[in-house]
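FIELD: query
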Amino acid sequence: MSLLSRFRKDASGTTAVLFGFVAIPMIGIAGACVDYARASSARASLNAAVDAAALMVARDATKLTDAQLTTRAEALIRANLAGNSDAKLGTYTVAINRTARTVNVTATTDVETTLTKVIGFDTIPVSSTAQSAWGTNRVELALVLDNTGSMAASNKLTELKKASLDLLKIMKEASTEPDQIRVSVVPFATQVRLPTTYKDSPWLRYDLTKGSGWNKKTITKATWEGCISDRDKPYDVSDAGAVTGQNVTLYPADFCAQSTLTPIRPLTSDWTALEGTINAMTPVGYTNVTIGAAWGAASLSPIAPLPEAAPANTPRLTKYMILLTDGDNTQNRFGDGQATMDLRTAAACTSAKDAGIRIYSIRVIDGNSSLLRSCASDPGMYYEVSNASQLGPIFQQIAREISQIRLTM
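FIELD: result
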């Protein structure tokens, strides 16, 4: 009885027994942390793989059958998961809707657990879904390019032509259907220029003069060579003020201050014509950034003087402007000083952005950096170029940003 009493009262070894009871849950919890981190890594890999597959299917949807697209999507997902041993492709679906022009890609994987198995969880399920669209996103882009005399220096115009042609090539290759991407080219100096076939347009006026006394001349349809100067203020900075027939709203035909200025190419997907306009650009005259920005916006507007653009509220349409200059404002129709001209340029940029146009601005070696930075739609859309050879990579980057197919969810 004494022995039994001592055994009943003996508490030695209790800690070991209690630890035995709690050890399994503790190991399970610790294992869950490790396995959750592995599952998170697998999810990131799966997300990236599914996103890439959705974009690939959207890009090639017009070229391949549904079966071919499904096979390629599976192969791409497996290839992107190959570097993560925890992310092995389980089930997957590729749903292609050719009426809505969308694709949905869904994939799953089960991450095998390690220590978490001791609490009854053998796997952690992971899934990912992505949707993308093709042929529905549309782009209208205005290339507003400084063609002033200073562009002849430091190889600037030569490099600008190369960069612009590269941009057009990227845009052309990204376009999967007619008129999906359209581009206008607006060469500017003190004035802009149009083909003389516009001479009878009701939005033009013929009342500007040059010379004085017996040598005073007034512009006429017969003597007009296509050059246009700033509209009367406040219409000089905006395309929002529609032409009403009142003289103040009309565009003033003028004598050419720069007779070799290349004419504007209105919005088009005729890539050969666009390339021809770029190749024809020549450096001449002084700088008036305002008129360039105003006509860039006009080329993206569906109203006169250049009505080729689609309405701003067209579904899946984004309008862009690339505004490039290599110098300060120096001359406009009103004889304003640089400070006043800069205010007009800022107003023109604001007006374009208010109209829904996203602006990239580029300063080539010289020019008012703060003005051009403020013209850009956000800081990442402003570029400083210290050497003209940098234009090529910048234009290629912008072209890819504009033309790439984007995930829709």
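FIELD: remark
The first strand starts at residue 92 and ends at 97.
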